[in-house]
C-alpha cells in the first residue's frame, strides 16, 4: 500500500482549491443575469384593453406592469429607441428626429436614406450594447434601430441588418440561438414594426387595428413559448415596451404652411407634427413672425424658447424654428402635397395617446406588481442594474423604478436555483468571469504537470532506482 506524502497531499489540496475557483468562474459566466428588451413599435399603452390579450396578461400577472411610460419629445421612432438604450433625452444623445440636418457636417439624416448608417449621427452617446461589450459581455440585436451601425467603432457582438421582410418568428429563433450559443449573449434586443405601420395607414379607430393588436399578443405568446422550450424563461429578464403611441388624424385638420410663408424662404427639415424649419440667410425673423400666431392649433418656438420640460433645445441638430401641432393635427405645406397619415405620433410627450406601456417578467422582477407611470429614461439604469454593468452618464434614475425589482437586488439564476446577490458582487465577480476561467485553466495545467512529476519522483524513490541507471538504456537505443 502506498502512502501519500505530505508534499503530495499539499499538492492535491492546491489542485482541489483551484478546481473550485475555476468551477465558480465558469458558473458565474453561465449564470450571468440576462435581459431581453423587446419593442413593438407604436404600441400605445391602452391597446391591451381593446381586445383580449391573454399572453400580455400572463406576463403581467407573473411579472410587472407599468401602465404608462412617459417617453421623450419628440415622440418619434428613432429618438425614443435610442433613449431606451442610452437613458438620455434627444438633446443629449443627438438623435433628435427621424429626419434631421447637421449644419456643421452639412449632412442630412433620414430613415429613407443610407445616412442612418453613418456613425457620426450616433456617436454622441454610448448605447447599451456598446457599454455591455466594453465591460466584457456579449450582445445580440435583431433589427433594433442603430444596431446595424458601427457606433464608437463597435457593432453588437451579433446583429441582423434591418430587413422588414424577416418574419417575427425568424427573429425570435435567431435571438434564442445567441442566448444559447457556445459564447452566449447576456443582453438581447428585438424590434417589430407593428402596430405602428397599421396605425399610420388606417388610424387608431379602424377595426383592422384590433386584429393587428391581437396578432401582437400571439407574437408575444410565441416568444414566451420559445423561451420556455429553450429553458430560458425562468432565467431571462424579459422587458416589453414601445417607443410611442398613436393618435387619430383627419384631412380636415391640416395646417398649410403655404398660406403663411413662401417656400423659397426656408428649408423644411422635418415635417409633421413637429416641423423643423431652417430659414434661409437673413429670413429668420420674417419666417418666425409670419408663423408664430398663424394658426390656433400650431405653436411656434424659437429654438432658445422651446420649453425646458421638452428637454429639446441644447443640440445643434435642433433647427432655429420648430412648429408643434396640437394632437390630431397635421402640418403640411398644403392639402394636396406632402405626406398625410390617418394615424400619427410625434406630438407632446405628456399627451396620453403618445405614451406606451411596459411589462416585464423574470427573476429580477416582482410578480403581479403594477406601477402607474414611469419615465422612459429610467429603463436604461434599470437594465444596467439587472445586468450588473456600470452605466454611462444618463438622465435616468434607478431609484424611480427600484420598486419593480425583487427586494431591490440583482438576481442571478441557474435552472431551479435562484441566488440573490448584490450589484457590487455581480460587478466584482461577473465582469471577471472569463479572466477567472483563463487564469484557473493555466494554473490547473501547471499544477497537474508538477503533481505528476512529484508522484513519479516519489514512486521512483520507493523503488530505490537512480536517475542515471534509468537513463542509460534510453541513450543506448
TrEMBL record:
Organism of provenance: Chiloscyllium punctatum (Brownbanded bambooshark)
Top-level taxonomic group: Eukaryota
GO MF annotation terms: hydrolase activity; metal ion binding
Keyword annotations from UniProtKB, A to Z: Glycoprotein, Hydrolase, Membrane, Metal-binding, Signal, Transmembrane, Transmembrane helix, Zinc
Q: Report TM segments.
A: 432-452
* InterPro entries assigned: Alkaline_phosphatase_core_sf, Phosphodiest/P_Trfase
Annotated compartments? Membrane
What membrane topology is given? Single-pass membrane protein
| Gene3D superfamilies according to UniProt | 3.30.1360.180, Alkaline Phosphatase, subunit A (3.40.720.10)
Under what name is this protein listed? Uncharacterized protein
Similarity remark: Belongs to the nucleotide pyrophosphatase/phosphodiesterase family.
Sorted alphabetically, which Pfam families does this protein's record hold?
Phosphodiest
**Gene Ontology CC terms, in alphabetical order:** membrane
Per the entry, which co-factors are needed? Zn(2+)
